[in-house]
Design goal:
Elements: E1 32-36, H1 78-85, E2 108-110, H2 130-148, H3 150-159, E3 161-165, H4 168-175, H5 179-182, H6 187-207, E4 212-216, H7 225-231, H8 240-263, E5 268-272, H9 275-283, E6 325-327, E7 330-331, H10 333-342, H11 344-351
Parallel strand pairs: 1-2, 1-3, 3-4, 4-5
Antiparallel strand pairs: 6-7
Helix pairs in contact: 2-3, 6-8
GO molecular function, one term: hydrolase activity, acting on ester bonds
Protein name: GDSL esterase/lipase
Organism: Hordeum vulgare subsp. vulgare (Domesticated barley)
Length: about 350
């Protein structure tokens, strides 16, 4: 069934002056556009029929005003810190909104959805696929041209920062749980297939005007609490097999990004490495001020995510700032900040 909601147009129109009257610098880019999964979804999943939601406590307990916005975190996401880095006071808003009744001039658009992947496959939960997110972006462009005018709209689209976070759910919710896939093709073959789709998706995004693209590498799934619980065979350590699969994928991702950069000379595109800093946090938490990395903050810290992480659970940790993981699939706000801090130089390259 088609989901029918009014669409929230979210753009940020820069003034002609480089600074405000107070002398504060304007953002480094006119807007931030986000595509991907629950690592960057600020609340689109609130408005679709799915069990994969995070718009209830204890999610958001450390966010502004302690509000559960739909972020799969106790506080800020990776994209929140990236938006702050490039000069915005808040993150791109959810693109789907039943309350939207007019044009809202904000700082960008977040098309991301929990469990979204490159493949248009069915998963355990409903989501907005990456290809559908690109269709929403096409709609956004048309509405932007109406509001801002064709020339200004083109300038906003070409100057904006684009963030892609996808591929994780293809592995987690498709490959590893589907015997037909993992018994008939290797993880490397599945990865190669995803890389091909990624290449086509970025080519499509480039054709739609994107010129500054940051692509998240895949995280070290083998170190996530749920992976240790399900695949660790009783050992309280990262699952090497899963991490090896992801390292292969990330290697292919970098090679593809290099190829795209050479093919399109006016395209700035970089891999934003989240694997390395998150792996370091997961394996050496104390050295960076954390106390717990094998269990998540929510509930028992072994299986709770989305609706399994809820106010009825006993035992949720009192201080998420010392935990690497908020729930079993998502880093805490404190870990997200460490991750983004590790690739700030790459963000500078994109927005320069």
């Amino acid at each position: 069934m088609a989901v029918r909601y009014l669409l929230l147009l979210a753009i940020f129109l820069l003034p002609t002056q480089p600074t405000t009257q107070a002398g504060k610098k304007q953002p480094a880019v006119p807007a931030v556009m986000v595509f991907g999964d629950s690592l960057v979804d600020v609340g689109n999943n609130n408005y679709i029929f799915t069990i994969a939601k995070a718009n209830f406590p204890p999610y958001g307990r450390d966010f502004k005003d302690h509000v559960a916005t739909g972020r799969f975190c106790n506080g800020k996401l990776l994209i929140d810190f990236i938006a702050e880095k490039v000069g915005f006071n808040s993150s791109p808003p959810a693109y789907l909104s039943p309350q939207a009744s007019g044009w809202n001039l904000l700082l960008g658009a977040n098309f991301a959805s929990a469990t979204s992947g490159y493949n248009d496959h069915g998963t355990l939960v409903n989501a907005i696929s990456f290809s559908q997110q690109l269709k929403y972006f096409e709609e956004y462009q048309g509405k932007l041209a109406v509001v801002a005018g064709g020339s200004h709209a083109h300038s906003i689209i070409s100057g904006s920062l684009y963030i892609i976070s996808a591929g994780s759910c293809d592995f987690v919710f498709t490959y590893y749980i589907n015997p037909f896939l993992y018994m008939t093709q290797s993880a490397e073959q599945f990865s190669d297939r995803l890389i091909g789709i990624f290449n086509n998706s970025v080519t499509q995004l480039y054709g739609m005007g994107a010129r500054r693209i940051g692509v998240f590498s895949l995280p070290p799934f083998g170190c996530f609490p749920v992976a240790i619980t399900l695949y660790g065979h009783g050992r309280n350590e990262c699952v090497l097999r899963l991490n090896n699969d992801i390292q292969y994928h990330n290697m292919k991702l970098r090679a593809t990004v290099d190829s795209l950069r050479k093919k399109y000379h006016d395209l700035k595109i970089v891999v934003l490495d989240i694997y390395t800093p998150l792996y370091n946090l997961a394996t050496s938490p104390v050295s960076q001020g954390f106390t717990e990395a094998k269990r998540a903050c929510c509930g028992t810290g072994t299986v709770e995510a989305s609706i399994l992480c809820n106010p009825l659970l006993p035992g949720t940790c009192p201080n998420a700032r010392t935990y690497v993981f908020w729930d079993v699939w998502h880093p805490s706000e404190a870990a997200n900040k460490v991750i983004v801090d590790s690739f700030l130089d790459d963000i500078d390259i994109l927005v320069a």
